[in-house]
Amino acid sequence: MIPILLLLVPLLTGIICFFLPGEKAARSWSLLATVVTLLVSLSGFIFFRNYEHLHADVPWMPALGSRFTVAMDGVSRLLCLLTAIIFPVIFIATWHVSYSKAPQFYGLMLLAQAGLIGVFIAADALLFYFFWELALIPAYFLCSVWGGERRIAVTFKFFIYTFVGSLFMLVGWIYIYMHTADRSFALTSFYNVRLSFETQSWLFWLIFIAFAVKMPVFPFHTWQPDTYEQSPTAVTMVLSGVMVKMGVFGVLRWLAPVLPYGTWAWGDTVSLLSIIGMIYASLLAMRQDDLKRLVAYSSIAHIGLMSLAIFATNQTGMQGVMIQMFSHGINITGMWIVVDLIERQFGTRKISELGGLARKAPVLAILLVVIALANIALPLTNAFVGEFLMFTGVFTSGASKYSAAFAAVAGLSIILSAVYTLNMIQKVFYGNTNSLTSNGKEIRWNEKWVLSMLVVVILVTGVFPKPILGMTIDTVQNIVARMFVQN
Asked: How far apart, in whole angstroms, are the C-alpha atoms of residue 411 and residue 304?
């Protein structure tokens, strides 16, 4: 019941939104739809925890061995909750932003939400692929129609990267399907497939590339900074806050448990690529003068740590990944909201052209400092819990003889993230105002409210992470058990 409602609400309201008469109606309708989706997700998080409420299975394409099977385990519930939170936050934060063809814009946003939720709850490989593509299509049009000056070239690159990766994944799914005992795309059937070590070794990359592009992991990341920069900030929040989690989720649910030998064989390689991406992105972030590109590169570094922790193959690191997926979505969305508020008020994102904003917008400065410090994992904030568990998991991992070295080198990213984040705060919010910022104003009530709510989530999750850890523990144990390979 719950997963079906989570799909139908954004899907049907998104279709209806295309036919609404004007921007005000479309904006209000979309906010209402996302609030309803949030209430449904919260009910699944708090009240309806039984299997029958979190599972649905109906015939879909029986000739192909595919059924419309949706199910919500701990990680699915967590990511559906994150998705349900982020979309109303986006609509409230951008309430005063005007879009051309607004009904189409908001309709596509709701369809993107439906696609994302579908990815997180699909328990059939063909259905998973369907929703994977469904989430991509609205994002493509949102970027190409409402993006910046270079939107066409940038969006084309984004589409090619993700679409080619998706085709590789589809080929991998078909190969695994051909080796299932019951010729089924069901997740349980995929888990029961027994493939040789050599087969899993090449099949791993066929599927991993699709997820690596989406996260993104170095060197499949080059589409990301340009796409984030050229997309409307509301779309960037979706891409960065939620859509990158599709790749992390894909590795957790579909790749590592299905191909444990391939995951083990290439674990050190992926870990090395993840660390290179973390350091590389952090160094680039330090050199950025554009706020959007700085936040974009910081996101690559954070996702790299999640990728590294997954391949540590232990419960501690995996629990860190679970809570960090949620925390990163909250924190990075808050960062994008602040960037958007600055750009709308001053017409620039260049750090060198800003300064002294704390004098003109003290509330914004306070909220930004909390969110930014959470983004660098300050103790008592949500990201600290996740990063501490992930680094502990990597350091104590028995999956690789290089685990301690991986943890030590990856730890440099903590120092680098503190450098570029604190430097950004100092240059943008403190010091003296200039001719551009001297006429700055405090943010509106809706913007204060939505940022304050994110700060509350940051602090509550940082101080009391038990609900998230408790919800995902069974899923974590199941994933680690399926990934375990005896050396």
From this structure: 12
Take residue 159 and report the two structure tokens written for it. 């589409």
> How far is 226 from 427, CA to CA, in rounded Å?
23
Q: What is the DSSP string of 247-271?
A: HHHHIIIIITTT-HHHHHHTHHHHH
d(CA 89, CA 447): 9
Torsion angle of C-alpha atoms 40, 10, 338, 290, degrees rounded to 10: 140
Which of 48-52, 59-63, 453-457 tops mean pLDDT?
Answer: 453-457
CA–CA gap between residue 142 and residue 132 (Å, rounded): 16
Q: Residue 224's Cα: distance from chain center in Å? A: 13
Summarised one tens digit per residue, pLDDT across range 273-327 is 999 999 998 998 888 888 888 888 888 888 989 999 998 888 899 999 999 999 9
Tell me if 421 sits within 8 A of 298, measured CB to CB.
Answer: yes
Q: Compute CA distances 439 → 338, 343, 398, 433, whole Å.
A: 18, 14, 57, 9
Question: Cα–Cα distance between 30 and 36 in angstroms, integer?
Answer: 10
Using DSSP's 3-state secondary structure scheme, residue 71 falls into strand
Q: How far apart are CA 130 and CA 293, in angstroms?
A: 31
Distant-in-sequence, close-in-space partners of 28: CB < 8 Å, separation ≥ 6: none
Residue that is written with structure tokens 């193959």 in the block: 313
Structure tokens, 66? 């595919």
Exposure string of 159-191, with b = 16+ CB inside 10 Å and e = fewer, is bebbeebbebbbebbebbbeebeeebbbbebbe
Q: Read off the pLDDT of each residue in 332-341 and give the average, rounded to a whole number.
A: 90
Quote the CA–CA distance of 29 and 6 in Å, as a whole number: 16
**DSSP assignment string, 136-172:** HHHHHHHHHHHS-TTHHHHHHHHHHHHHHHHHHHHHH
Question: CA-CA distance, 479 to 318, in Å (whole number)?
Answer: 9
CA 246 to mean position of chain CA atoms:
6
pLDDT at 109: 92
For 274, the token pair is: 């993840």
Question: Scanning the structure block, which residue is given the tokens 């930014």?
Answer: 372
Q: Which of 486, 104, 425, 469 is nearest to 321 (CA)?
A: 469
Three-class SS of 165-216: HHHHHHHHHHHHHHCCCCCCCEHHHHHCCCCCHHHHHHHHHHHHHHHHHHCC
pTM of the model: 0.91
**% of the chain with per-residue pLDDT over 90:** 28
In DSSP notation, 33-58 reads HHHHHHHHHHHHHHT--SGGGSEEEE
The one-letter amino acid at 286: M
Secondary structure (3-state) at 327: helix
Least Cα distance to 84 among 264, 242, 240 occurs for 242
